[in-house]
Amino acid sequence: MGNVFGRKSRPSRVTEQDKAILQLKQQRDKLKQYQKRITLQLEKERLLAKQLLKDGRKEKALLLLKKKRYQDQLLDKTENQISNLEHMVQDIEFMQIEMKVIEGLKVGNDCLKSMHEIMSIEDVERILDETQESIEYQRQIDEMLAGALTQEDEDAVLAELEAITQGEDVTLPEVPTEPIPEVPEAAKAEPEKREAKNKPDREMLAA
């Protein structure tokens, strides 16, 4: 029981503007009902005045028509009041929409301010400059590699990229670790001896 009575009631979502609109609409509806009732009554009185004239009761008919005229003026006033109430309802509803728009703009401005505090204009310019430098660097690399690789090289690069993507190591040829044997001096002199031996033969053929 304590929890029931101690529970805080939720704040009502109905605003004062909503209450005012409801009251205005209720007054408008009452006026419309009154207008409809008077219109029916006037139609009956018009028919009654017509019957009185037929019966020769002209004075009675004249009095009834004067009453009808007065009620017609009341209907005109009622119509104006209904129009005023409807305009007032529309104005309040439009003001509610404007308030929501202004509230949304305020939230947007606060959000923009927070973002500006997190990232200044200098930070944005620096990021844009770095991005442009990266694009330019990539373009230079592409220009250097364009036409410099054969189709076999391109296939090897793609294969290596695929292997890296799949988490595999590309098998590359091993670099020899043993020293290359030196050529003996006698082997180096052998071509020179053959060249000297063949030189007289070429001279004789030329003669």
Report on the structure:
The protein is an all-alpha fold and 207 residues long. Helix content is 81%, strand content 0%. It contains 6 helices and no strands. The protein is rod-shaped, with a radius of gyration of 52 Å. This is Charged multivesicular body protein 6.
Query: How much is the radius of gyration in Å?
Result: 52 Å
Provide the helix percentage.
Answer: over 70%
Structurally, the number of domains stands at 1
Class derived from helix and strand content: mainly alpha
Distance between the termini: 136 Å
Number of strands: 0
Number of DSSP helical runs? 6
The main β sheet shows up as: none
Mean pLDDT: 76
How much of the sequence is in beta strands? under 5%
Gross morphology is rod-shaped
Low-confidence stretches: none
**Would you list the SSEs in sequence order as H and E?**
HHHHHH
Main location: membrane
Family: Belongs to the SNF7 family.
Keywords: Coiled coil, Endosome, Membrane, Protein transport, Transport
GO biological process, one term: late endosome to vacuole transport via multivesicular body sorting pathway
Give the topology:
Blueprint: H1 2-6, H2 16-54, H3 58-118, H4 121-145, H5 151-165, H6 185-206
Helix pairs in contact: 2-3
Can you give me a brief rundown of this structure?
The protein has helices spanning 2-6, 16-54, 58-118, 121-145, 151-165, 185-206. The chain has 207 residues and is an all-alpha fold.
